Amino acid sequence: MAQGHFILYDKEFQGFQIALKKLLADSYAKIVFLVDKNGSLLASAGETADFDTTSLASLAAGNIAATGGLASLIGEKEFSILFHEGERDNMHISVVADRLILVVIFDRRSSVGLVRLRVRRASTQLERILRDVDEKALADEDGGIEELTEEDIESLLK
């Protein structure tokens, strides 16, 4: 399936939410975000009220893109894991299935090792859900949604 936008049905969205909540609890993180490579926030868990989630999602995707440029300069495809250490909080960013970006923000209650271990487990679950999304998209292409006609559009606008 091509990288790009996809339709996320409620069942798969709920699956993403469950995986993120489990990762949040298991890694003792503050916040977990799931972003597509275009910078759109797909799901989140944790203390998100004080965050500009739109900017964070966009900047995380930009970070992956920028480090992808650095990676290509040294002959790598991309860096699939990034880590940023701050005074209070740390950020672990990883690429899932070459299409999604998983961002985990954590503080001293956790460690990089624990976060990496839990992210690895969560990534497997997220990849499984993404495969379900792809299968539904293929089924829709094979005879699901019919193309709208001008009459259909006119009737919708009335």
Report on this structure.
The protein is α+β, with helices and mostly antiparallel strands. The protein has one domain: Dynein light chain 2a, cytoplasmic (Beta-Lactamase), CATH 3.30.450.30. 49% of the residues lie in helices and 20% in strands. The protein has four helices and five strands. The chain has helices at residues 10-27, 53-73, 112-141, 150-157; strands at 31-36, 41-46, 81-85, 90-96, 100-106. A five-stranded antiparallel beta sheet has the order 2-1-5-4-3, sandwiched between helices. A hairpin with a 4-residue loop joins strand 3 and strand 4 (90-96). Helix 1 packs antiparallel against helix 3. The longest helix has 30 residues, at 112-141. The protein is globular and about 60 Å long. The mean pLDDT is 89.
Describe the SSE topology.
Blueprint: H1 10-27, E1 31-36, E2 41-46, H2 53-73, E3 81-85, E4 90-96, E5 100-106, H3 112-141, H4 150-157
Antiparallel strand pairs: 1-2, 1-5, 3-4, 4-5
Helix pairs in contact: 1-3
Compact overview of the structure:
With 158 residues, this protein is of the alpha+beta class. Helix content is 49%, strand content 20%.
